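YM 10:42: Dihydroxyacetone kinase subunit L sequence, as discussed on the call
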Amino acid sequence: MSVDVAWAQAWIRSSAQVLSEHRAELNTLDREIGDGDHGENMDRGFQAVLPKLDAVPDAATPGELLKTLAATLISTVGGAAGPLYGTAYLKAAAAVSGAAELDGPAVVALLSAGRDGIVLRGKAESGDKTMVDAWTPAVDAAIEAEAAGAGPGLILAAAADAAEAGAVATEPWVARKGRASYLGERAIGHRDPGAQSTALILRCAADAAAQS
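YM 10:58: structure's back
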């Protein structure tokens, strides 16, 4: 089994819908420990890419779609999220460049490159209470699932499960990066908004694969 450009289209479109539906929730999470606009920014960026998807040729690859998404997010999303997510999708696109279909190892490479792009750009590590705390468990779970012989759908499902658990796990932590780090112990009890948006996005990837 593999996933292709139809999956990438469905993933991006589903992400746009889900992020719009959760815009207020993400804003609330961000308001508690940040600027309060994470949901608004993510919604704006993903809505901006939708018209561009309509113009993508049928022969496009998943990497080409992700590269289009990356450029759009970098140019339209404010705050830290635009550069971080933009870099994630750009690195993910490069990892699968030229491939029309993605098998299990390619999906792992995509997820790993996305996480590594965020770490490179944001200089955050696991435990800093950032989106890395959803991405790293997702990548670890994807690697484990692929090693066990799982295909793209199960790999993405495992990654989404781990990302959701990782986002929840940020709640009792003190933030060590970003605006939330200025709050010290006042950040305890609040989920990181970037980790939550990551969990939503990776669940969309898994659902798109399950429906393809």
